[in-house]
Structure formats: structure tokens, C-alpha cells
Amino acid sequence: MSYSIVIHCRCWEAGLTPPPPTPVHRDDDDLFSPLPDDHFLEDGRRPFIAVDEWKETACAHKHMYLVHEWVANTSGMSSYRWALEQVDPVGYAPVLQVLPRFNDDIIEVEEVPPALAALRYALTDPRFDALDADDASYARHLSKLLEGVFAVAEKTGERVHWL
């Protein structure tokens, strides 16, 4: 299993996309067709396939993701969690609390600022140097990647999703 992190764009709501091929609604920030999967459109496609294809090119953001980053596999996420816990489980609690335990997890808007502050501190925290060089390097790498995503979330006021 692996983890990606995304922030959905709002181009559809802003009227910046062509019309979708079928009615859509937003569910946990992603766009879906409310039609059943066993329904077929006039062109023979299933609604969910038509909507997925539409999202690929409907706006300037591929698949309507403002941000989409592959973060780590399960082992990498465990290593990152371990490194944060070794260095400062209390100080890095805002980050540890938003790391995924499973795919399809959501980071709420109010969780972003404290996690972002902790991620920014992690980038220069000298205590990581006490870890194995590979562990320290990997922890800083993921902290930098997540800091960039969380900075976008803070600026836009959007929730963050683990996929």
C-alpha cells in the first residue's frame, strides 16, 4: 500500500470547467456521479468512467487536483512516524495526528496550521541528526514535501486528503 496526498481544486464550483457528462455532486471534496454504476450513458459509458475522464481535462488541474503528491509506501510512512516519535513525540504531535493510518483519510482545515508549524520546524530541527543519517534524511525529505502541501492548504483554506 502507498500514500498520496491531494487537495481538490474548486474549478467546477467556480464555473471554470465545461459541463460534466452527467450530473455530479461533491462528496468529501471529490466529484462523483450520483447515478448507479449499472447505469449507462447514451454514449455507452458508465457514469463514473465518464466523470473520471471529464475530470482529467476539465480544468488546468489534472484530475481536478490542485495538489497531488505521492508521499510514501507503508514502510516509508512507518519510518517517518518512527523518526518523529524518536525526536519529539509531543512537539511533533500535530504532524503525527494527521499522518494516515489508512487511505482515504481527511485532514481538516483546522488541523493544518499546527501541523504546518511543526513541519517547518522539522526542516531545521538539529535533533534529527542524532538519528541514522538515512532516517534523518528521509524524515527531512517527507517533512519538506508535506510542508509544501500544507502551505497550499493553509493558503486556500482547503482540506487535505490521503489517498
List the helices and strands and how they pair.
Blueprint: E1 2-8, E2 25-27, E3 30-32, H1 47-57, E4 65-73, H2 74-87, H3 93-96, E5 106-107, H4 112-122, H5 133-156, E6 160-162
Antiparallel strand pairs: 1-4, 1-6, 2-3, 5-6
Helix pairs in contact: 2-5, 4-5
Element order, helices and strands? EEEHEHHEHHE
End-to-end Cα distance, whole Å, is 10 Å
Shape: elongated
Spatial strand sequence of the major β-sheet: 4-1-6-5
Please identify the structural class as seen in this structure: alpha+beta
Give the number of domains. 2
- Residue runs with pLDDT of under 50 for 5 or more positions: none
Average pLDDT: 92
Number of helices: 5
Strands, count: 6
Helix share bin: 25-40%
The percent range for strand residues is 15-25%
